[in-house]
Write a structure and sequence with these properties.
Layout (H helix, E strand, L loop, with lengths): L1 H20 L2 E3 L24 E5 L4 E6 L18 E6 L4 E7 L10 E7 L8 E7 L5 E8 L4 E5 L6 E7 L5 E7 L4 E6 L2 E7 L7 E7 L9 E9 L2 H23 L5
Antiparallel strand pairs: 1-15, 2-5, 3-4, 4-15, 5-14, 6-11, 6-15, 7-8, 7-14, 8-9, 9-10, 11-12, 12-13
Length: about 260
């Protein structure tokens, strides 16, 4: 009986600690988006409500749907419960989805992680995301421009920009931006290091996803999903295991008084 109780306690503590480690998270499978994805929607936790900006006189918009429809229509996907956040924009049109960090700006050692899935992109058009100050000034940008061969990143006003080693794909990517001390940053894509640099002065307080004229039809739709802000891995591990150790000692004292 003591062994069973101990196992149940450790499972509960571990689950609680790991969930607490997430600073912010959201995905398109959240019930908030069961009736679509509109301005002022606020699913998940740790983020502010969504807002949208757009321009152009043609087709453009936002929705939740399967990211497998872009590209050749049978590409890999980044869906949660069959859904991702989608942005579409015909040539000479653009649309952006913007969201603030409600728990404060990104801090040293924290990471912004997101899954991206672009479709076909017209020459000169672009899709991606920007990490920005609260006034909309961009501090970091990850994107693909039609006609190029590789995904790119840029830190306007700072240092560090150029091509990654990741070539065009319609099967999805996981992008991890990590903020270090003194505005230093590092970038990885699908778990592989892709560059580093320093940011211009200011704090990252929001994210903007964009589709600038990628093209007509679902084959050119741009999707993203599984947005997260997480603490530095080392600190997260210390917090989890430190909490487990303290709690387990206390529970062992209680269990020692129980009958076998």
């Amino acid at each position: 009986m003591k062994s069973l109780i101990t196992a149940l306690i450790l499972t509960a503590i571990s689950s609680t600690a790991l969930h607490a480690a997430l600073i912010a998270s959201d995905n398109a499978g959240d019930s908030t988006y069961n009736d679509g994805w509109t301005s002022a929607d606020n699913g998940g936790s740790g983020f502010g409500a969504w807002s949208f900006t757009s321009s152009g006189g043609g087709s453009r918009g936002n929705y939740v749907g399967s990211s497998s429809v872009n590209g050749n229509g049978s590409s890999g996907n980044i869906d949660t419960s069959g859904r991702s956040f989608g942005l579409f924009a015909a040539p000479f049109n653009n649309i952006s989805a913007i969201r603030g960090f409600s728990l404060g700006s990104l801090g040293a050692g924290q990471e912004f992680i997101v899954s991206l899935d672009n479709g076909f992109i017209n020459s000169g058009a672009s899709v991606g995301f920007m990490l920005q100050k609260s006034d909309g000034t961009t501090l970091f940008k990850f994107f693909f421009t039609g006609g190029q061969s590789f995904y790119q990143f840029d830190a306007p006003g700072g240092s560090g920009s150029g091509n990654t080693s990741v070539g065009f794909t319609t099967d999805g990517l996981v992008v991890d931006f990590r903020l270090g001390s003194s505005s230093a940053f590092s970038l990885s894509v699908n778990g592989n290091s892709q560059g580093s640099g320093t940011l211009d002065a200011g704090s990252i307080s929001r994210v903007e996803f964009f589709n600038v004229g990628a093209g007509n039809g679902s084959g050119s739709d741009f999707f993203f999903n599984s947005i997260q802000v997480v603490p530095e891995p080392t600190n997260m591990a210390l917090g989890v295991f430190g909490g487990l150790a303290i709690c387990f000692v206390g529970f062992r004292r209680i269990l020692s008084r129980l009958p076998v």
